From TrEMBL:
SUPFAM superfamilies: Terpenoid synthases. It holds the Pfam family polyprenyl_synt. GO terms for molecular function: metal ion binding; prenyltransferase activity. Its cofactor is Mg(2+). It comes from Microvirga brassicacearum. PANTHER family: FARNESYL DIPHOSPHATE SYNTHASE. Belongs to the FPP/GGPP synthase family. Keywords: Isoprene biosynthesis, Magnesium, Metal-binding, Transferase. The keyword Calcium does not apply. One of its GO terms (cellular component) is cytoplasm. One of its GO terms (biological process) is terpenoid biosynthetic process. This is Probable farnesyl diphosphate synthase.
């Protein structure tokens, strides 16, 4: 499989820097219009959770899809930052002792370790609500219908029928509630909800901002779904093969907890073949865009080749 190019990596880093700068502004201590105050300890926890780490893949997808379709306005970056804040909230809550009970995230103490459980819960809550505030702000797009569409899509992708529901299925698949271990269809559904839905939204958000419709939107949506599925399988492979030092977090935990993964069900080699199949599926979805979609082709390869 062709590896991601240096030009792709340079663009990924460029967007990541833009995201970091924008997030720093959004997470400043200064209270905004309509706010009474921003508690210092809470803001420190938010910055600990959201700044200084991560590949920023989700905002990258939003920015690059919008760019592909001729939309290079600041709203794409703001929308990408909203997705990133939503993603960071999910990590803060996933790391809690009642969930995955992790001590490290991106090579640093998790929020509940650096602060405490209560602060971590509130930090996650604040990151989530700020994400929706950004999408609803006219600064993201002047058209209220576009903003409403983004809010609705992110709510569905992140809520009970998406990421949160997927996390519930994941906990059940560990055997916490006496339920039967998931079969292949159940695992694919769980992963599409827990991980895939937000990645798919990241792609669709760029299309929404660019006013894409019909086959154009459908093709990009299919690309996002394939990329999301490939991401989760690659993540499961990394959990087995990478070291905690490289990953910046505890590895091997899924197997220890008895979590249901396609790596367990299919075996390592078949899981790798499934990743390759999904890359081809993503490529086919963006084929109608021709050479303009090369950066999206590179993105799905990066997802399955990454080492962290």
């Amino acid at each position: 499989m062709m590896r991601s190019t240096s030009s792709f990596m340079a663009r990924l880093l460029e967007v990541a820097r833009d995201v970091e700068t924008t997030l720093e502004g959004l997470l400043s201590d200064e209270a905004r219009s309509g706010e009474i105050a921003r508690p210092s300890r809470l803001m420190k926890a938010l910055r600990h959770a959201a700044l200084g780490g991560g590949k920023r893949l989700r905002p990258f997808l939003t920015v690059e899809v919008a760019r592909l379709l001729g939309q290079d306005a600041p709203g794409a970056l703001r929308t990408g930052c909203a997705v990133e804040l939503l993603h960071c909230y999910s990590l803060v809550h996933d790391d809690l002792p009642s969930m995955d009970d992790d001590d490290l995230r991106r090579g640093r103490p998790t929020v509940h370790k650096a602060f405490d459980d209560a602060t971590a819960i509130l930090a996650g809550d604040a990151l989530q609500t700020l994400a929706f505030e950004i999408l609803a702000d006219p600064a993201t797009d002047p058209d209220p219908a576009i903003r409403a569409d983004l809010v609705l899509r992110l709510a569905r992708a992140s809520g009970l029928g998406g990421m949160v529901g997927g996390q519930m299925l994941d906990l059940a698949a560990e055997g916490r509630y006496g339920e039967v271990r998931a079969d292949q269809a159940g695992i694919r559904r769980l992963q599409a909800m827990k991980t895939g839905a937000i990645l798919a939204f990241s792609v669709e958000a760029g299309a929404v901002l660019a006013r894409a419709e019909g086959p154009e939107f459908a093709n990009l949506s299919a690309y996002g779904q394939a990329l999301g599925a490939a991401f989760q399988i690659a993540d499961d492979i990394l959990d087995r093969e990478a070291s905690a030092e490289v990953m910046g977090k505890r590895t091997g935990k899924d197997q220890q907890k008895g979590k249901a993964t396609l790596v367990d069900l299919l075996g390592m080699e078949e899981a790798r073949r499934e990743c390759a199949r999904l890359v081809e599926q993503a490529d086919s979805a963006v084929a109608p865009f021709g050479d303009k979609a090369e950066i999206l082709r590179q993105a799905v390869r990066f997802v399955v080749e990454r080492e962290t």
